Amino acid sequence: MAPGFAALNPGYASPGYASPGGASRGDRVSDTLPDPSERLMAAFRAAAARMQGLDVVNPALAVEAVGFAPWDEHWLGVMLTPWFMNLTLLPRNPRAWQPLATGAKRRYGFPAGEYEFVGADDDAIGAYQVCSLFSPVHEFADQETARMVATLAREALFDPANAAVPAVPTTTLSPAADPAPAPGPLARLERSLDAPLSKRNFLRGRLSGADRDHRG
Fold it and tell me: Which of 25, 44, 130, 184 is buried most, with the most CB atoms less than 10 Å from its CB?
């Protein structure tokens, strides 16, 4: 196993829940941490160099930090490497950051619903939390496609149309009256992939634990 790989594979602990930005408004400080993209890419490029030749690696992909931007008092983006694609959360306001032990779980609320993140820590990165999208990433033929999926996945978190819809008794449904669904951020992805992809199923399947492991 490559050195440092254990840090990219957080384990599991008792689940918890927290709303983002747990510090009170009065405790928040004006100085914030900078965009972590360069720091993340440097750390994972070093890991990628040690992992060359492993079966889990997709040689068509490179390390890239996609779409990191402020969310609440944190930095949220997608970390893409040749072996995983993860939603990644890091502190922006240190006093608003709620530490999470490596392998422990916490749920965060987004317009598209609540999603589970796993704690991780690395000497070069510091504390961060991840929600696995793809691991491994052999389904991507090139960097452009993987980057597009990463971008659309982050956007999808903020589209309420992707939230779970409560079940409705079939006796109340009128197919003729059903409105056409509004286009969401994954509509472009559906047209680009070989098979149709449900926005809601993408989120529920890729972000809620089906067909994936936590690696990153």
Answer: 44
Of 117, 130, 133, 143, nearest to 202 by C-alpha is 133
Q: Pick left, alpha or beta for residue 66 (phi over 0 → left; psi -120 to 50 → alpha; otherwise beta).
A: beta
In one-letter notation, the amino acid at residue 91 is P
For residue 113, is it left (φ>0), alpha (ψ between -120 and 50) or beta?
left
Three-state secondary structure call for residue 206 = helix
Domain residue ranges of the chain, discontinuous segments joined by +? 5-165+183-207
pTM of the model: 0.70
**Whether pLDDT at 193 is above 90:** no
Q: How far apart, in whole angstroms, are the C-alpha atoms of residue 65 and residue 67?
A: 7
Residue type, 158: F
pLDDT (0 to 100) of residue 167: 57
Bridge-based pairing state of the strands 105-110 and 113-122: antiparallel
Strand 85-91's sheet: what is its strand order?
15-17, 105-110, 113-122, 126-134, 85-91, 74-80, 64-71
Residue 149 neighbours by CB under 8 Å, 6+ apart: 85, 133, 134, 140, 189
Q: What CATH code would you report for 5-165+183-207?
A: 3.30.1460.40
